[in-house]
Sequence to fold (181 residues):
Amino acid sequence: MTRWLLWTLAGLLLGGVVHLATILVLPRTATQDAYARLEPLTPVNAMTPIPGPTPDKAVLPFMDPAFAVAVCRYDLASGPMKLTAPVSQAYTSVTFYTRRGIAYYGINDRAAGRRTIELDLMTTPQHDAMPEEADVTAADRLIIESPTTTGLIVVRALSPEPGLMPMAQTALAAARCRSAP
Fold:
């Protein structure tokens, strides 16, 4: 009886270790992550509207049909970027993801408190290289430090009714991500 209990406990422990290792390794080995799916659709350092999901097809999993979505695939190797996104009438959010899909910053229109969300995106070394005076003159703008040089910026605008989707899409069409001067 004791031997049977030990074998059962060892099997459960081994199964738990294998399960945990699989869960931790799988995201790093997946070939069709969000970044890879968006590579053929989006140019680097440019905002691109993403088509809404249909019952048969969606560019990204778990897309909400009530939101218009635009994506900027960024590369900070050549320098910082500036993001400008006008706020829609209902709700607008901006989320920053690393190349591996880890969200590291998010802001919405209520937190921004303005009619336009304006952000500067840069790596920590690029932020450290800014002159001291630039931080003082940039006190009213938000500076986001990216943990990686590549990643995704996802801008979403809510359409509270299906007939208002063109309003949300128009707001996203005016969103820009470009290299900072």
About this structure: The chain has six helices and nine strands.
